[in-house]
Design goal:
alpha+beta
């Protein structure tokens, strides 16, 4: 019995020691929360550990919110952490928004954070607007001269539009589109060079920040450079293309004419061959006619006289005139 009793005492002592060690592990955090008036109990800290939530992060966030006069319940902090959110950044954003008189509650800040946006940076951008420099945008005025423009966009984050609003890439793309449209509608590139403000005014008046997470405060033209004479290049290319088309059509006509000539020559050769063949049959026909009595001797001599007379006339006609 004494042995069993001794073993029980030893086990109880071990359990007490383990409990004390377990409780002692959270004692400093509990004491820190107690003196900070953050009201986090030992049991809440143990529950956080069992739920695999780092008590240190939750206690620090809780103390920070209480000291700023914006106490947030530990259950909300735990839920946001378990949702893969950044608890400390959300609390810091709430404090920054409160100091800047920007309306922002924990639920809205948590939603922005879970949406993948930096809520603290958004609050800071609401107070201190950000300048975005666009890449070089090329456009062509109506006179055919190309211009390269670089702009600086001053934007302020809109807290209410952060969830579901488009980002910086959309703003840059819309501004680039507006620059191309403004330069493209100018009668001459000189108008743009003389008054670059015309671009920023037109673009700013287009309401390009609609549906984005930002409010565009200003659009300033940082640089405008003259590029190529696109109109002249296009005219040159068009003339070269027309020349090639004309050459192709001329070559086609030449080929067709050559084919027609060759066809005509073939027909002439065929006719000559038939004529030679017919002429070769004349003596035989005449001999037959003489033999059959259809052609007399005098008729034959008359025909020969006509042929000789015809030949003589041809020679006289072809002879050169005497000087």
């Amino acid at each position: 019995m004494d042995t069993i009793f001794a073993i029980g005492i030893v086990i109880a002592a071990i359990v007490v020691i383990v409990l004390l060690a377990f409780v002692g592990k959270f004692f400093s955090l509990w004491l820190q929360a107690l003196f900070s008036k953050a009201n986090v109990s030992i049991f809440q800290l143990i529950g956080m550990r069992l739920r695999k939530v780092p008590p240190q992060v939750i206690v620090e966030a809780r103390i920070l919110s209480c000291k700023a006069g914006l106490p947030v319940d530990t259950n909300l902090l735990e839920a946001h952490y378990l949702s893969r959110g950044n608890v400390l950044r959300v609390i810091q954003a709430l404090i920054a928004a409160n100091k800047a008189n920007i309306k922002l509650d924990f639920k809205e800040a948590a939603a922005i954070d879970l949406a993948g946006r930096n809520v603290l940076e958004a609050v800071q951008m609401s107070v201190n607007p950000k300048v975005i420099t666009t890449p070089k945008v090329s456009a062509v005025a109506l006179d055919g001269i190309q211009l390269h423009a670089v702009t600086r966009i001053t934007v302020r984050a809109s807290i209410q539009k952060l969830v579901g609003g488009a980002g910086e890439e959309t703003v840059i793309a819309r501004v680039g589109e507006g620059i191309v449209s403004s330069i493209g509608s100018a009668q001459s590139h000189k108008e743009v060079l003389e008054n670059p403000n015309m671009i920023s005014k037109k673009v700013l008046a287009s309401g390009l920040d609609a549906g984005t997470a930002f409010e565009i405060l200003s659009i300033d033209i940082a640089d405008v450079d003259v590029g190529q004479n696109i109109g002249a290049i296009l005219e040159t290319d068009r003339a070269e293309a027309d020349k090639k088309i004309a050459q192709a059509k001329a070559e086609e006509r030449r080929a067709m004419a050559y084919a027609a000539e060759q066809e005509m020559k073939a027909k002439v050769m065929e006719m000559k061959a038939k004529l030679v063949e017919a002429e070769a049959q004349i003596p035989m026909a005449m001999a037959t006619a003489l033999r059959d009595g259809k052609l007399g001797v005098m008729d034959y001599y008359n025909m020969k006289n006509i042929e000789a007379d015809t030949q003589m006339r041809k020679e006289i006609g072809n002879a050169p005139e005497a000087k």
